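#structure-requests
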Amino acid sequence: MKGIKSSATNIALVGGRTYCKELLEKTNLGYMDSDISARIVAVSDPNPDSPGIVLAKKLGLKTMSDYYELYSPENHIDLIIILTPESSILEDILATKPDNIRVMSYYTFEIFWKAIGVQEQKLRERNEEVETILNSIQDFIIVITPDKEIFEVNEAFLNKMGYTSDEVIGRKCYEIFQGENSDFCNSGDIRCPLSEVIKNKRYNQQVMPRLNRDGETRYFEVSIFPIWEKDGKISKFIEVSRDITERKKEAEEITRRLEQMVEERTLKLKETHAKLLHQDKMASLGKLSASVVHEINNPIAGIINLTKLLKRLTADGSIHAEDVNDFNQYLELMETETWRVSRIVSNLLTFSRQSEMGFEEVNINRLIEKTLFLNSNLLMINQVRVKRDLDPNLPDIVGSEDQLQQAFINFISNAAESMETAGKGVLNVKTRYSPVDDKIKIAFKDNGVGILQENFSKLFEPFFTTKKKGKGVGLGLSVAYGIIEEHGGSIHVNSKEGKGTTFNIKLPLKQVSFSKNRNGGANGQH
């Protein structure tokens, strides 16, 4: 308010030459009026065209030709700075000024002004050095205010993003990076890096998609570093980012190629596994056929003997009443043995039939009994006794009965052959349900010759066998492993040389969407 003196120090300048203009320019740019409680309010010079007077008028300051007017109380002048070297002016002002007005001489001002100029030049050179360094860096460097306005950028950003400095300075960062879509910076897995810095009180780094001037989406690795003020507030954000679009595209292309290679390799492995499965089935079929031939011989021999007996009894053309009961008994035996042959042949045909991996409900106990029946002659030939410990409350599983039967045949036949020289072979077959992991546990334990330690790691490799020539081709356990794995199960083997071997199998009750599961595995424990 007019007539009331401000708490700030009011300064008047006497002399409107070069020094006056420089001082007014720097004051107007904020060098003196931001942190210093002082202001220039008036300029005096007899020449109305002097550069200082002209600029003072533009800035709205008081101007006068006679410095005596500065003494007037209504101007509230606290300090007069003399910017002209004439000593007479200094002497006159010192002699005529009021006591409350202080004076800075021309030469005193010049000393300080030149010292400030030296420091200013050093600062300018230092700023130029820093600017040169920042502009030589190929990464983008952006200074952002807490209000998300871009304060400064380096040339790499301008050149690569296609902007000029005037187009980005003062704009909101999301307006430049996301096409005015500020919500994009907080969508999906993307979080505004500035907000993350404020929330976590530390620097933030993430990969973000951004738009260049042409609207093309580019990907950047963005690192945001906060600059803290003394009061704990953030004064600026320094962003260092680099364009990783090409690197991301290369990585995606490599990933795509790897996935394609994996798919092709998986397809080949499936084809190879199918061939191995077929070869093993044929090998097993041959082995089963030999066993079944012996098994069928017994009922057929009985049927032939009974047929001969009936022919002899009826050869004389008469049948006595007392022979009818014997005839009925003979016919029942013949029917029983014929059905026995039929079951053996039916099971053999079922096993040999080529089929897809069709999943259905399977009763494991019943399947084991069926498989043991198919291999009964092989077990008898090798003098192997079977001990069953089958869980009566075993739930059904979802799987392929045909494939699981083939796997069980391999476990049983391997066990039988490992005990062929023992004379007192015992095959223990055990089933249990584990509610903890919702799986069926099956164990085939023999007291045969066991597995040599050096052969243990190759146990499930295709075509690896320790059997004599003509006894096997080394596909059985490999195919069995594949079948169990296809059912999402696992095989664990315990074996000691001369003490026997146990195959522990785990099978899940259900298959995920009836698809092949490859979470299983095999490992051995010596």
